[in-house]
Design a protein that fits this description.
The structure holds two protein chains of two kinds.
Chain A lengths: L16 E3 L4 E3 L9 H13 L7 H17 L11 H17 L9 E4 L2 E4 H27 L2 H10 L4 H30 L9 H32 L17 H4 L5 H24 L8 H10 L4
Antiparallel strand pairs in A: 1-2, 3-4
Helix pairs in contact in A: 1-4, 1-5, 1-9, 2-4, 3-4, 5-6, 6-7
Chain B lengths: L16 H24 L11 H12 L1 H18 L4 H24 L9 H29 L8 H31 L12
Classes of the chains: A mainly alpha, B mainly alpha.
Chain lengths: ~300, ~200
Amino acid sequence: MNTETTLTASPERAAKSRKTLLGYVPMVSPFYAFHPATRLILFIFLGVTPLFIFIPEMNILLLFVNLALLRWGKVDIQQLKIYMPIIFTVAIFMFTVVILAPGKDPNYTPLEVLGKTIYYQPVFFTFAAYWRLIAMLFGTILFFSTNRERELLVGLRALRLPFVASYVVGLSIRAAGMFMEDFRTIREAEQARGLDTKAMRFSDQVKLYMMYLIPLFSIALRRANEISNALFARGYTLTGRTSTGKPREDYIRSTYSYSKRDFVAIAFMIIIFVVTGLTQIFFNVFAIEHSPLNIFLRQALGIPS
Amino acid sequence: MENVWQLEEGEVRKPGIVHVVMLALFTGIGIVVGTFGSLAIPIGFVSAFWPGQAVQSIGSIWFGWWGGIAAGLFPLISNSLSGSAPLPVSIAYLPANILQGMVAGWAFRRFKSNPSLPTGKDWWVFILWGALVPNAIGAAWGTTMLVAFGLITQAAQFVSFLGWFIGNTIPTIVLGGLVLKYVSPLVVRSKAFCKDYWA
């Protein structure tokens, strides 16, 4: 009987994502053609622009722009499901609060919905506020789904953040990763000794969570000494200058360069931002009163504007 | 009772690189605790369960202003990562976040309380100045900012304030109390511990 088996190498699976602080970023993305500073400016642009826009339809449109950018950037949309609970519970929270505490303005229009009196103006205001918030949040999600810690650091340094500040930001983000790694090690050590957290009561699980912090803080203290000694030994100073007084070479920044598309993208974002801000501040163009849905509902319900 | 804030004879303490490193590491801890706190019970920008506040109080008690800076810095990142508040709102929270941290640090130094909480007085200082007062400040400022940004109505501010205050105070007392009690004896012997505000 022939017992020989032939083993064929399975085709190697190409990695599509790269691990980052909380999730994954795609290995290949059109965003990577842009300088990290451009991506950081996009983050600020998408996060701040909705502040000037009170029309919910425009913020929904902005949300679709964010989703399109996520798709274009080859982000695995499945990975965004960690944000789903927050998206729904924010809506539940906002609408519950406005229904329970609508305010006492005599100009509010009462509406009977399922036997409960609600008021049109605060409810529509909350509807508009919710979409503003979600539009801003997706700008943040886009940034953290397409940038690693290193790119955030380069972006900050490119925007001329002082060395000590960018060092603290960079090390703190790395420290968050190290802290999670230590946490995983402690949990695995406990599991290896037979701890079954699933069999524990909720209150005991909470206590256990608290108890994790004690070794984690102890490790952080030891690590602070080690890192500060290592920095001292390498001649680092808080000013970011060498002993001769010259600025220290920034290797990571030197590996990225600006291209024409960066300048075009930055100019485009600045123009859109300035135009949006000025038209809202001086002409109230994006006020909630100009929302087509608001106008339609007011006409349908007979509410004077 | 040992006064941990008292300088020994001839002792000179200066801010150094170890404090900057500790600031970064503590900010990292705050990012993780703040992010997972927001994701654990997601209720949005009105944080109903945020153990990050415990980290803010502990930070300023142990590391003075370095902990205060960390208290201001880490919510900027953790709020973005958890999706609980957009960047402009997080920036608007900054003064309250620094205060949320520094109130406890000031009170422990002012009343010469021991961070290991060995006596009832130390516990009361922590509960009042490390949990109740900072969270009242944080919830008042935070909800005012939400009204200013047009994210909640004026009428909804009080309900939001209560949700925020109660939801943050309980984890602060439980988590902060335990960490202070068991980790402080280690910290006060370390180089990074600040007897004064900067060193």
